[in-house]
Amino acid sequence: MSLARPMTDRERFALTCVGTLGFFCVWYLAAFFQFAPAKFLPMPHEVASKLVQLCGQPFAGAILPEHLLASLKRYAMGFGLAAVIGVPLGLLMGRFRWLDRVVSPVFDSLRFIAPVAWVPFAALWFGTGIGGPTLIIFAGAFPPCLINSYRGAKSVEVKYLEAAAMLGIGSYRTITEVLFPAAVPSIIAGLRIGAGLGWMSLVGAELIVANSGMGYMIVKGQSAIATDIVMAGMIAIGAVGVAIDVALRKLEARLLRHRQEN
């Protein structure tokens, strides 16, 4: 029995177009037959028009690109902090058993707490400044970064670590020259998961503890019963999320290709 051949890029693109067109057809039909009042379910072209309008007309104190920039600044801080702490800590925990024993009980207790559960503390500690959303983004993105780095370090074959020890390579070089290169695929996978969770956590945070950003704009749209603004914001959020994931995929492919060449 022969295995199915892999799809070409053209076939993937065609299927993507079919899925996208199918989604918009269902949306148009639902709006046309008024499955919900027109005020609460606008047509796709009305949402697209509002999206363009928001790029030049302020709403909730800023135009859409300014709200998006505010969100991206918070996201960069929270996700960057999660990656800078999570990846090295995961590698160190995979290398040193004593550190694993110290950190794991606390980490395993905290990682099951939903990021949104930190909203009250974020509001109390940081108010509506940048610190509150950063804390919530960090809470969402940190666990995948640490866990995947840890698993990547644990998956390294013992013989490589033993060879490094025999050659007199110290702990620092073992981590940077043995563990890290071997764990790169797992690390990138963790960053991709963490990036998605961090972006979703950001929007949840801005719904409550922010005075700008995409989540804040959506809340104000809801208060004004402007469903087209809410849906336009959701589309912008989804598009940025896809762009972040595509960028990380390209980084992953480039690192894996570089690794194979070396």
Task: Give me a quick take on this structure.
With 262 residues, the protein is an all-alpha fold. Helices cover 77% and strands 0% of the residues. The protein has helices at 9-32, 44-54, 64-95, 97-110, 119-126, 131-154, 158-166, 171-206, 214-223, 227-261.
Walk me through this protein's architecture:
Helix 2 (44-54) packs across helix 10 and helix 6 packs antiparallel against helix 8 (171-206). The protein is an all-alpha fold and 262 residues long. The longest helix is centred in the last third of the chain and has 36 residues, at 171-206. It is globular. It is built from ten helices and no strands.
Helices and strands in order:
Blueprint: H1 9-32, H2 44-54, H3 64-95, H4 97-110, H5 119-126, H6 131-154, H7 158-166, H8 171-206, H9 214-223, H10 227-261
What are the defining features of this structure?
single chain; 262 residues; mainly alpha; MetI-like fold; 10 helices; 77% helix; 0% strand
Give the CATH topology: MetI-like fold
Assess the beta-strand content as a share of residues.
under 5%
**Helix fraction bin:** over 70%
Structural class: mainly alpha
Helix count equals 10
**Which parts are unreliable, with pLDDT below 50 for 5 consecutive residues or more?**
none
How many beta-strand segments?
0
Provide the CATH architecture. Orthogonal Bundle
| Cα shape | globular
State the separation between the terminal residues, measured CA to CA. 36 Å
Listing every helix as H and every strand as E from the N terminus to the C terminus, the arrangement reads: HHHHHHHHHH
Largest sheet: none
- What would CATH call the class? Mainly Alpha
CATH superfamily: MetI-like
Calculate the mean pLDDT score and round it.
Answer: 86
Count of individual domains: 1
The whole-angstrom Rg is 23 Å
